[in-house]
Amino acid sequence: MTNLSLADLAGYMRQLGEGALITLELFLTSFALAFIFGVLIGIATLSRSRVVQGIWRVYASIFMGVPSLLVIFLTFYGGSAMLGAVLGEFGARIDISPFGAGVIAFTVVYAAYIAELVRGAIENLPKGQFEGARALAIPPAIMWGKVILPQVMRLALPGLVNVWSFMLKETPLVSLAGLQDLVAAAKIAAGATKEPFIFFVATALVFIAFSALSFRLASRLETRLDRGQRREAAGRSSSRAAA
Amino acid sequence: MTMHAPAPDAAKEPGRLAITISGLVKHYGSHRALNGIDLEVRRGERIVICGPSGSGKSTLIRCINALERHDGGSIVVNGIELTADEGTVQDIRQEVGMVFQHFNLFPHLTAIENCMLAPQLNRGLTKARAEKLAMHYLERVHLADHARKYPSRLSGGQQQRVAIARALCMEPRILLFDEPTSALDPEMVNEVLGVMEELAASGVTMLCVTHEMGFARRVADRCVFMDHGEIVESRDAASFFQAPESQRLRDFLAQILR
Ligand SMILES: Nc1ncnc2c1ncn2[C@@H]1O[C@H](COP(=O)(O)OP(=O)(O)O)[C@@H](O)[C@H]1O
Ligand SMILES: [Mg+2]
């Protein structure tokens, strides 16, 4: 410690903590919205309508092709103008915050990836699952909720875990639009104290801790969704007996 | 096929017929899978449908519960004419249970959960009552001991019996079977046929696509032979086997009873 007092260190670390909360909030909000829209869009893309297929192809190729940073900038700098075009005078006066721009951009981009995963998983389900439900007069909404999606989630889980990790790693991009997130706080602290190592490593540790926690939750979820599957059935039932 | 006139008998006794099919036509693209099917099924009647692969047997019974939409002719189930209307389709599906070749059990639900799902949703049963009902029908297919198992832990014959119990839980008046034993290992065929024979004795109306001719002889009131999307012969089981009229049926029986 050259010229960094303990009090200063604690102060900067608190700022890092606040930044981490903003990062987490941005990430969880964006992922939740991307998940909801991704599932709905994934189901919608099963429609054979040419219009739906056309819209889906354009949407997917734009947002899977354009860098997320550009989408964030477009939303942040161009968002008010776009709202103005759609909503007129009233829309032009709405300011989009960096946080809002980040949530919108990540939702739009990652809903496309999640839709692609969900669509693939649905197509891989045996057609008999739908027919079994229809023959039992199970209404469509409940068929999706109780019969199809639980199985789709099992098939899509590995892909969803990838999207989760990848999106988490992209969150710092929003600091380039001015969001005071974890990485922005680390950068300020590092610049002010000339101690980049401490703050950037601390930041990395936060990301590592969060993703380690995520993987543990994901493997629990996997066990839950895998119930009824033959794979590892013997191993699981013995561990359940031990618990 | 425009006018739908009920058969004269049905007009006199409207409750006598479970299913009335007239002039039924179904296309897949330009392929005509059903080419004008006429079939009347009386209440409690047990009908076995057989015929070569691709003759339209599955298509016929799948039209009855609207898993496939027909594009000509009419289907009347328990007095309800099947139309494109979703409410009508749901009404008919409540009356008609279906058992598939590949069981189509829901793998993420246990045997009893598979059975409870539809009664809870469609008949508004509480969980406890649905469970009681499910257990009753699982007992009837001799699987009470396996109620809490997932389908993957059951043999093929047991899975098919769960599927039968699941269909019975809707307490349908009509049961459709589409080659229920064709996907089973030979040693499991009899346990499923046994359950189906017990059902046949209970008075439920049954339409069963199968090539199990022993079952047909023991159970069927009437056997229907299909070929190229048409009903070629339809008669009581005894004369169906002993005195087939058409050459096509004779050839088919010769092959299958070889
Ligand atoms: N979903 C489908 N799309 C196109 N053709 C089909 C479809 N289902 C059945 N067919 C065709 O319709 C005909 C009748 O099929 P099906 O009713 O399954 O016969 P069966 O059950 O007697 O073997 C066959 O020629 C089959 O190839
Ligand atoms: Mg068939």
TrEMBL record, chain A:
Family annotation (InterPro entries): AA_ABC_transptr_permease_3TM, ABC_transp_permease_HisMQ, MetI-like, MetI-like_sf
Domain ABC transmembrane type-1 residues, every copy: 20-218
SUPFAM superfamilies attached to this UniProt entry: MetI-like
Keyword field: Cell inner membrane, Cell membrane, Membrane, Transmembrane, Transmembrane helix, Transport
Transmembrane regions: 20-46, 58-76, 96-115, 136-157, 197-218
CDD domains: TM_PBP2
PROSITE patterns named among the record's database cross-references: ABC_TM1
GO molecular function, one term: transmembrane transporter activity
Topology term for the membrane: Multi-pass membrane protein
Location relative to the cell: Cell inner membrane; Cell membrane
Any Pfam family: BPD_transp_1
Entry keyword annotation includes Transmembrane: yes
Gene Ontology cellular-component terms listed: ATP-binding cassette (ABC) transporter complex
PANTHER family cross-referenced by the UniProt entry: ARGININE ABC TRANSPORTER PERMEASE PROTEIN ARTQ (PTHR30133:SF2), CATIONIC AMINO ACID TRANSPORTER, MEMBRANE COMPONENT (PTHR30133)
Protein family: Belongs to the binding-protein-dependent transport system permease family. HisMQ subfamily.
The protein's name in its UniProt record: Histidine/lysine/arginine/ornithine ABC transporter permease HisQ
Gene name linked to the record: hisQ
